[in-house]
Amino acid sequence: MTGMNSFPPTARNWESVNRILIFSSHLSTGLTPSATWKDLDRTRNLRTTNPKRCPPSYQAPLFTVNYYTIMDMWGSHKKQKTDSSLEEIPNTSRKSNTDEFVVPASEESPPTVSNSSDQRTSQGNDKEDSELPIPQFEDNVKDFNVAESPEDVRFSIEQKFLLEMPDDFFDFWDCCSQINKEKPEEALMKAGLTLVGPYDVLTGKLKGLKTRKISSYVCHWRYYYDPPEFMTVVAGDENEYHIGYYRDDPFALPSFVASMSSIKPGNIKPLGENIFAGVCSYLTLKMKEENPFKKVPLQRLYREIELFAKKKKYSLEAVTQDMKKRNKQVVAKTFHGAGIVVPMHGDVGYREVPETPANLRRMFQKVVDAKSDNERRKHFDDIQELITNVQFAYDEGDFGMGLELGLDLFSFGSELFHKPIYHVLGVGYDLLGREPYIDILQAHLKNRRRGNNMSILEVVE
Fold first, then answer.
1. How far apart, in whole angstroms, are the C-alpha atoms of residue 403 and residue 162?
2. 192 conformational bin, left if phi > 0, alpha if psi -120 to 50, beta if neither
3. Which residue of 56, 208, 363, 373 lies most exposed, with the fewest beta carbons within 10 A?
4. Low-confidence winner among 70-84, 193-207, 217-231, 423-437 (lowest mean pLDDT)
5. Residue 22: enclosing H or E segment and its boundaries?
């Protein structure tokens, strides 16, 4: 792939562009739109890239290559022809941060990519190739089982949800334990809230989960519009309202606490820097809406939380200095409103998507409203052009562009875009070194649900 020398020296995984995805908007395959993708075979043994704070049983997911296919986003697939004259992609392996964990390269034949003349030559065999049984998107999702739970509850949560929880998460549990000693998760019931998600590790509810697949854990209380960066910890009883942590980097602590609901689907509303501030912000709004009789227990609940937060020295401000500092680092707002932050090296790291948000929505809606596959393919040409631009951006180190486009497609909400979402965001997350988000994304796209009860215990037998 061209442009590899133009990457900033401090960015990560330059070789992964070749190993993950090769966009090709000009393939003469008879499929419109089309792209050359690779099927991803995820090798796992659970360790994050920061071994100082991770349990010994955890290792970040890494990519290995199986084979390349020419895939149309609507479900048509053709196996790409290869021969000995084609250029081989180097057989690579990656080591984790500790030498004893090594991920071997695929034992299959190294994948190959043809040049444009080779592709034209192989077109005569397209009919034969189209009969090959290439798996659908859902079948490409690889899963793995979580090892036995560590005794340390912090590690146990991170093992299952792939993200580290901040101190305020555990302190809020202690606060709720004082309010309701028997069932701390129900301490906020008077306000219509319940502690969920990773709190179910503390309650022991997840012990009832009969499967130990990571895809089940990361989808536990994950709502339809929750991007990988958002993690629900408190659920409301109506309008799919929920409160959770938002973090830009899965290996960093959360940037802020926010809420989402079906009233404004896909919109992320910041509430504060920690869970105490988030819940208090919700209670403040709730008290303004309720009549005087229902307001009294809410005021009492607010005072109890406020007192505990002050004792632990947590800020209850809706917008803190650290949140303002992050806002200055946001390179694009995105449809969900929380924006994205990516490492910048001078002016390298992000370039704008060459369409306004309003135009993007119209482009996406035309694809959704199409009455035939041919019409849908025609409308998708404009999106395919943007995806090609994303590839150029990836090639030159501007990873933020793909992150913005992928999250906008995700927040738009149509399942028609699940394939391009997975591939565009998957590459972006890998190049940014945000591998856990790839696991969360692929599991969520396979099990994307609507409703107020997002417990995985309700769907996994």
1. 20
2. left
3. 208
4. 70-84
5. strand 21-22
**Token representation of residue 76:** 């048509």
| 300 compared with 74, residue with greater pLDDT | 300
Give alpha helix (H) positions in 320-417: 321-329, 357-369, 373-395, 400-412
The residue among 431, 330, 418, 352 whose CA lies nearest residue 138 is 418
Rounded Cα distance between 218 and 336, Å, is 20
Q: Which of 53-57, 68-72, 171-175, 335-339 has the lowest mean pLDDT?
A: 68-72
What DSSP character marks residue 249?
S
Long-range contacts of 58-61 (CB under 8 A, 24+ apart): 58/155, 58/158, 58/159, 59/96, 59/101, 60/96, 60/435, 60/436, 61/435, 61/436, 61/438, 61/439
User: Are the C-beta atoms of residues 344 and 248 closer than 8 Å to each other?
Assistant: no
Name the percent of the chain in helix, strand, coil, to the closest 5.
Answer: 40, 15, 45
pTM of the model as a whole: 0.73
Give the integer Cα–Cα distance in Å for 139 and 365.
27
160 vs 215: CA distance, rounded Å: 9
Helix (H) or strand (E) holding 139: helix 137-140
Taking the alpha carbons at both ends of the chain, their separation in whole angstroms is: 45
Read off the pLDDT of each residue in 51-66 and give the average, rounded to a whole number.
36
Distance separating alpha carbons of residues 203 and 176, to the nearest angstrom = 12
Place of tokens 């290869």: 82
Mean pLDDT, rounded, of the chain:
76
pLDDT digits (tens, 9 = 90+) for 343-366: 999 999 999 999 999 999 999 999
Using DSSP, state whether 431 is helix, strand or coil: helix
Q: Which residues contact 92 (CB under 8 A, 6 or more apart)?
A: 15, 19, 105
Catalytic residues, which ones?
396
Beta carbons of 452 and 238 less than 8 angstroms apart? yes
Q: Does position 433 have pLDDT exceeding 80, yes or no?
A: yes
Instruction: Look up residue 430 and give its amino acid.
Output: D
What distance lies between CA 148 and its chain's CA centroid?
25
Residue with token string 């390349």 = 68
Mean pLDDT of 1-28: 36
Distances (CA, A) of 202 to 159, 171, 232: 14, 12, 15
Q: Taking Cα atoms as reference points, which of 68, 79, 82, 73 lies closest to residue 31?
A: 73
